[in-house]
Structures are given as C-alpha cells and as structure tokens.
Amino acid sequence: MAADLRCFLYMPLVHSESAADQTDSVALFDALGRTTTVEEQAFFGGGGFSG
C-alpha cells in the first residue's frame, strides 16, 4: 500500500482520545520513514499549536 494512503488510514489513530491509539500512530508514522523538517521542529519546539 502506498505511503500516502497509509497516512490517510492512520489519521483516526492520531485523533483518537485513547493514549494507546496515539502511541500506536506515532510508531506507524515513524515506520513510514518520514523525517521531521527543520521548520516542523522549530514549530513544535516553540510550543506548537499551544503557543
């Protein structure tokens, strides 16, 4: 299955209220091999959506 389709299928886990689902989603996305960009790291390092 293509990586972009897998990302789409993983989205419900990302948005789940279950901490276990969210932990699983991180592992699944990590397995796709995508690297966080410098811009994303700066955004999350600065508080992300909370600040």
Looking at this protein, list some descriptive labels.
about 50 residues, mainly alpha
Count of strand segments? 0
Q: How is the biggest beta sheet arranged?
A: none
One letter per element, helices H and strands E, the order comes to: HHH
Helix amount, in percent? 55-70%
Q: What does the overall shape look like?
A: globular
Distance between the termini: 36 Å
Number of DSSP helices? 3
* Residue-averaged pLDDT: 90
Structural classification: mainly alpha
Uncertain regions spanning at least 5 consecutive residues: none
Word description of this protein:
With 51 residues, this protein is mostly helical. 65% of the residues lie in helices and 0% in strands. The protein is built from three helices and no strands. It has helices at 3-14, 19-31, 38-45. Helix 1 (3-14) packs antiparallel against helix 2 (19-31). The chain is globular and about 35 Å long.
